[in-house]
Amino acid sequence: MPYDLLIRDVRILDGTGAAPFRADVAVRGERIAAIGTLDGATAERVIDGQGHYLAPGFIDVHTHDDTNVIRTPAMLPKLSQGVTTVVVGNCGISASPVTLAGEVPDPMNLLGHVEDFRYPSFVAYAEAVDAASPSVNVAALVGHTSLRSQVMDDFARPASHAEIATMERLLRRALAEGALGLSSGLAYRNAFQAPTAEMEPLVAAVGEAGGVYTTHLRDEFAGLLGAMDEAFATARHGQVPLVISHLKCAGAGNWGGAPRALERLEAAARHQRAHCDCYPYTAGSSTLDLGQVTDEIEITITWSEPHPEQARRPLKAIADEWKLSLREAAARLQPAGAVYHNMSEDDMRRVLAHPLAMVGSDGLPNDPHPHPRLWGAFPRVLGHYSRDLGLMPLAEAVRKMTSLSAANFGLVDRGVIREGAFADLTLFDLATLEDTADYATPIAPARGIELVVVNGVIGYRRGTATGERAGRMLRRTRPIPNTLTQCMEDSP
């Protein structure tokens, strides 16, 4: 019986961190059917791998693609860099369970306009994803700020006991319907006033359901270590695995802090399951936050509702032109988005290379002039940091974007190349692999991604989307392991 797809002569990086080996890979239906020397095998479609590397499809654990997988299901920014699964609902903001009638609260406006928030339940969102048939798989967290938006008329205070109870009810329903867990964005003004007493019952509900808790820490600047301790304690209380989102030492005064932050992560991981994600750039991007406005770093405006003409300009130049202080100019531009060049290269490399760190793009697809991480994060790790700089072995870089990610987010039978696993596959030419997106021209597909297969279907080949979209909603169907782990347990 012929296979549906046969990829011949590839160097397999199986996702576990093991050394690559040369073989053929056969696919039948949506699963990998055989791996080895398949000389006599036949298939409806045969691809000559030409000795390139074949990896599991990359899993982007930190995205804000919640509404884009429905509105723009081709998902070219992700498919073109070899991503086959996106985790949405990060930083406390999710498209469900949410309906809005008025202004979209910050930073939920990163996901779209009021008409994009029309999913009162998680199941409604999941059904909309499946109906859209995106080119990539989608797994979703529920955002804490999004829950707040459904029960609170004033974000500048802690939630009441009744409001917490309602949020918990909404969260439990979403978890029962397949949500991965809960995310928080405690640094943002619409969640900053949420104390531990508000977070603990919500995170405990996640623990009971077998989900995961991810958090954009309350402070990524001078108070980083204290914010990390808060996250560890909250996760321990809820008996839930923890992922710290885009771990960084932000702000010039905080540069050089990565060793201390990673020591704190390692210490926690000896007693609870704790990991982080990281993007391979020294600039962040989000909404324009007055709390981050400083003359110590370069800040570039990416969009502004009241002053769209100021997009793609440095905040300092705008302030000088208007004869205002930086904060006054920023306030006049709001609501707006910005890129903040607020990290050191050495700190970022230390986090990226750490065995407990996964790769996540944190790209903002609705930004008209996005951070280049939206299109380039994964090829940048493999090409620039692994191949060119030798920051980590290629097999370890792949592990950080495949099996480690699948394990931490409960994505069963994904993130590995083995018989019986889902056929999410990325074929790349390491010699030519390059992220071409940069801050000046951020919308640019990577070079060197030769083939992307999602659930056994070729979605991308040699720089072009095929138009065959086989992605689906990945609902959590079993508890995500929350075993105690030594800090290096997940290293190869």
Describe the fold and architecture.
This protein has about 500 residues and is an alpha/beta fold. It is globular. Helices cover about 30% and strands about 20% of the residues. The two termini are about 35 Å apart. The model is unreliable at about 485-490 (pLDDT under 50).
Summed over residues and divided by their number, the pLDDT gives a mean of: 96
Major sheet description: 9 strands, mixed
Given the structure, what is the number of helices?
14
**CA distance, first residue to last residue:** 37 Å
Given the C-alpha coordinates, what overall shape results? globular
Radius of gyration: 22 Å
Runs with pLDDT <50, length 5+?
485-492
Q: Approximately what portion of the residues adopt beta-strand conformation?
A: 15-25%
Count of DSSP strands: 24
What is the helical fraction, as a range of percent? 25-40%
Keywords:
14 helices; 492 residues; disordered C terminus; 9-stranded mixed beta sheet; alpha/beta
Give a nutshell description of this structure.
The protein is of the alpha/beta class and 492 residues long.
